[in-house]
Design goal:
Layout lengths: L1 E6 L2 H13 L4 E4 L3 H4 L10 E5 L5 H13 L4 E2 L6 E2 L16
Antiparallel strand pairs: 1-3, 2-3, 4-5
């Protein structure tokens, strides 16, 4: 087993887990209930972790996550220069698709 990602945001980790599992890579989330069950634990111990079940899939998982994280950033429409939130793949103003 290999830890592939960690975050204080459990939703982010679960989204990454869904991306990996959707691409056939088995993984699991660990530590998501630490903060709620232990008062006063250090911040470094509060991270939610994403673990690969098969270390041999590390390279493929990192490629997939890299692509997933790149598309989760805000972007600017190349046609009308409107700033667009990360979750949208099309400009709300002129309906231009997100550049690849």
């Amino acid at each position: 087993m290999l830890q592939i990602s960690s975050s204080l945001n459990s939703t982010e980790i679960h989204n990454l887990k869904n991306v990996l599992e959707g691409n056939g890579i088995a993984c699991e989330v660990r530590g998501e209930f630490r903060r709620s069950s232990m008062a006063g634990i250090p911040m470094s111990e509060s991270f939610v972790e994403l673990w690969l079940l098969d270390d041999a899939q590390e390279d493929a998982a990192r490629r997939i996550l890299s692509g997933a994280l790149q598309t989760s950033t805000p972007w600017t429409c190349p046609k009308c220069a409107e700033p667009i939130e990360a979750e949208f793949d099309e400009c709300w103003n002129c309906q231009t698709s997100r550049p690849q």
